[in-house]
Amino acid sequence: MGRPPILPTDKKFDLVLRVVSGELTAAEAAREAAVSEQSVSNWRRQFIEGGRNGLAGEGGRDSGSASRIAELIKENATLKATIGELYIELRKYSRSPVGRVPVPRGNMHPGRRVN
Domain named Insertion element IS150 protein InsJ-like helix-turn-helix: which ranges (predicted)? Predict the structure, then answer.
């Protein structure tokens, strides 16, 4: 059997809702969509798992990991702001006469090389 045609998500969603509500059987939905009954069963399973994860909150994440993610996002923003401020300070310092490192001029003799 060849690969089934790719159906839009809305069509899959409609079929799965009709199967879950009892309006259609999986076999009837498969015939209507010209796909295998296994495909309809997989879509139904994915639909139910997605609903379960959605009810768990934050797309399936528990509240502890959701708060940790929010904390890390806030910390990331703070660190980016600090890096930006330090970059500006560094640019100001490098342009001032005080911040310039003297560059040696003339003949430079390399130090003794150690093998």
Answer: 15-59
pLDDT score, position 68: 87
Contact 60, 54 (CB under 8 A): yes
**Cα–Cα distance measured from residue 6 to residue 8, given in angstroms and rounded to the nearest whole number:** 7
Is the full-model pTM beyond 0.85? no
User: Tokens standing for 7?
Assistant: 């159906």
pLDDT tens per residue, range 6-52: 888 889 999 999 999 999 999 999 999 989 999 999 999 999 988 88
Q: What is the DSSP string of the chain?
A: -PPPPPPPHHHHHHHHHHHHHTSS-HHHHHHHHTS-HHHHHHHHHHHHHHHHHHHHSGGG--HHHHHHHHHHHHHHHHHHHHHHHHHHHHHHHHHSTTTPPPPP-S---PPPP--
